[in-house]
Every structure is written in structure tokens, then in C-alpha cells.
Amino acid sequence: MTIGHQVLLRGTGVRFPCAEGDTLLRAALRAGVGLSYECNSGACGSCRYELLEGEVRTRWTEAPGLSARDRRKGRRLACQSEPVTDCVVDLSAVPEPAPHRPIRQAAQLREVRHLTHDMAEFVFTAEKHAAFSAGQYAMLALPGGVERAYSMSNLGNCSREWKFVVKRSPDGQATSILFDSMDLGAAIELDGPYGQAYFRAGDDRDIVCVAGGSGLGAMVSVVLGAAAQADASERTVHLFCGGRAPRDLHIPEAMAMAERRLRALHVHTAVSEPGAADSGSHQGFVHEAVVAELGDEVPEFTYYAAGPPAMTDALARALVLDGGLAADRLHFDRFS
């Protein structure tokens, strides 16, 4: 990419370059400017802003992250805006950007490990490095011009290895490519890392990780991140995994290693399909399992969550609105 235009955040003096074809959001993050966002794909609306001067090209004009009221007020999404001139925008920066700046790089598919009937871990080897925080995600540009966000299921490493747990979607264009069309050695473009729901190493509270479906990958990464800390033996972790039926659940072997390093690792499973739960699983939704297991202790933990919006929304209501948890102790990125 070539340097295209300059973007100025009104009232801050913060200015950053945006390469041709890059979005306002990604360019800011590449420059080390922290902005409010979650999905990076137009669905959540967290990166709304107002364009005060200049011109942008909109990638997805019907992105659901903007309401009808937002559109009437002229608001836009930073993740869908490509500056075509120098711009001045009204967009708040966050005080502490994520530790790693995202970069674009080539990657090759090295291995596919099938985990359940419809879920697999895809292992890519990148061209440059694998620098990311536990719980973050990357944007994968797949053959055919399809781009999707997937969370890493491993830790940052020097082996240039990026692992992603992916659940097949019946009508999903991206998962059809990954499961059916890509051979080992196939090349993609990997852009990352992104995400605000990364493991906060400086928070010494015990933690709870809540995974729905392929959200398992991100939560495994967080558990491994906690286990890799020098104070791991002083920390207790609860991992909750939810699925429709027992065949949807998978507990990675890496959890045994994490358990040896942590003070305690408690793994809980929840099955939502009526009558499908076995004796070791909670019958119901995974957010209900969290409340049932932790009870009055809900406010004492820091929480990380990954899964479909219905799950993360229900969890936020149960923990923050009903359970008294401080909102800043629940970390998740909202995906559609």
C-alpha cells in the first residue's frame, strides 16, 4: 500500500496517515492511535464518527452498525470508511490502545485439525511474525475476495504461527471456502491483530472465560495467556463452554497444560438443546451456567467472552444488569 491521505482527530491534535485502500479505523490502529471499536466489519456500530472535512468512500453502504437515526445525522463507520482526501473527523480516541499494532502479511495454510462434526482449527504460517495478545482476532482475506474476522486460539509466538478455531456455517461463504475449497499450502492475506477483549495481564483477579461455538478459540487463548504469567499459580480460572448438544463441545488438550500451571482451572459445559445434556453438563444456555455456578460470587471475577451476539448480550445482562458486575470487568468483541 502507498501512503494516501492524512486524518486529523478534531480537538486532539492527533494526526495519522491512511494508505490508499485502507480504512480509517485500521489506519489509526496501525499508527498506534487507539479508537473505540469491536467487530471491524460494520456490524456493531462501536466505531461511529462524524466526517467534518474531506471525503471518504464507504465499503458497505448498508452496514447494520448504523441505525436510521445515525444515517439521518450523517454518522459513519470508521471500519467502513476509506479516505479519498485528507480528512478531519470527530471520533474519540481511547487512552490505552492495544499492545500490538496490526499489519498486513501473507500467510499459508499449514494444517487443519478437525475438532467436532462442524468445527476445526486452521493453522497458518505467516510471512513475518505472530505478535498478538491472548483473545485478539485477525481479518483473513480468503480467495475470492471474501474477508472475515476470526480469533486466534494460540498465543503470540516466534514461529509465525496463527491458529483459528472456525465453526462451519450452513450458508457461510467464508467457512465454505475454508472447509471445502482451500488446500494445504493455499495463500491468504492476514491482517491483524485486532480486538479489545484481550487478556489484561495487569489485572490480578481470578478470571472467567465464556465460550459459545467457535468462540472457544479466543477463550482458549485467554486461558493459555493466564497460565503463561509468572503469577499463574496464584490465579483461578473458570472456563465455560456452550453448545446445542454434546457433540458441539470440545475441550482442547492444551487445557491440561494450563491446569498444571494455574492454581485451579475449572471447566464447565452447557448444552441448550432440551434433554441433550449429559450428567456432567448444565442443561440450558451457557450464561445461565455461569450464574448457576458462581452465584453470589459473580462480581468478584474479571470476565472474557466470545460467541454469537445473542450469547454475549445475554451474558452482559446477566452479569452487569442483574449480577452487579462492574461493566469494565467484562471484555468481549461483538461479531455478527
What distinguishing features does this structure have?
six-stranded parallel sheet; 7 helices; Rossmann fold; Ubiquitin-like (UB roll); Elongation Factor Tu (Ef-tu), domain 3; 3 domains; 33% strand; six-stranded antiparallel sheet
Structure description:
This protein has 3 domains: 3-90, Beta-grasp domain (Ubiquitin-like (UB roll)); 103-194, Beta Barrel (Elongation Factor Tu (Ef-tu), domain 3); 207-332, 3-Layer(aba) Sandwich (Rossmann fold). It contains 7 helices and 19 strands. It has 336 residues and is α/β, with parallel strands linked by helices. The strands form 4 sheets. A 6-stranded antiparallel beta sheet has the order 11-10-13-8-9-12. The model has no long low-confidence stretch (mean pLDDT 94).
